[in-house]
Design brief:
Number of strands: 0
Shape: elongated
Number of helices: 4
Low-confidence stretches: none
Helix content: 55-70%
Strand content: under 5%
């Protein structure tokens, strides 16, 4: 078994000592359990449902929620917005240029 050296600030060490005493375990076992929990493989589907629930998004399998097609036209929408922005800049420059020579 490998060893790991870890530096803790005094406040964190005090909290760790209190927690392992409360749980009646060792610091080693406590840290190993936390590492196992943090490093265990995640089920991507379960994570998706958890995030959707956390943000109040509907279940994708719920047929009562109306389906949208907004994502299908994202590229075209972005292109339109960029072109609109560029056209506004171009027209602003033309107005500025035409007004620059007047006293």
């Amino acid at each position: 078994m490998a060893a790991l050296s870890l530096r803790l600030d005094p406040e964190l060490e005090m909290r760790l000592t209190q927690e392992v005493a409360r749980r009646k375990t060792t610091k080693t076992q406590f840290v190993q359990d936390l590492l196992r929990q943090a490093l265990e493989p995640r089920d991507p589907v379960a994570l998706l449902y958890a995030v959707r629930a956390q943000h109040g998004l509907p279940d994708p399998s719920d047929n009562s929620v109306p389906e949208t097609r907004r994502s299908e036209n994202v590229k075209a929408a972005v292109q339109r917005r960029v072109l609109d922005k560029l056209n506004r800049r171009t027209s602003d420059l033309k107005v500025a240029e035409s007004g620059a020579g007047t006293p």
